[in-house]
Amino acid sequence: DVMSPFTVNLFRFAIALAVLGALHFRDASRRGVSWTESLRRAPLAVVGLGLLAHVAYQTAFILGIDRLTAGMGALLMATAPLWTSLLAHAARIDRLSRAGWIGVGLGLLGALLVILGRPRGAEIDGTWSGVALVLAGAFAWALFTVLARPVLLRGVSSLGLTFWGLLVAFPLLTALGAPGIVDVPW
Known about the structure:
This protein is mostly helical. It is 75% helix and 0% strand.
């Protein structure tokens, strides 16, 4: 009620960027590599994954959760591992067993039953656009998880991927969040 969700996100990621930068610099120094090594190893992947994880996912999640109750938003975000399993299977990174397929199916069915299983005429604890946005965010996070694995296997450090991806995304996050700063009743 006091601050726009994108403005909250801006402050959150400004702090995260500073902390991740310090951790990444320390980790690179400890390993004896340049702190730009991750960016040099896979520049397009780091940029693309940063935009996917920190702009696409965050935008869908923030806009969606703003339209839903916390419980409904949490339930829908909890489908991210299910989407990750399906995408990893499709990409042949992981293979779902019969029990895995049953688990994914039951998880998605359970989420669907909670969404649709309301008494006739009852609200869904939010809006349908909120449901679609949070599900899109969960799917974006799953896609990031699956696409990041081969990049990490090429020697890009997880801290480097996260730091550089966030640094690339930060100007867009700033553009979304900065306008709300003037409206905050400090």
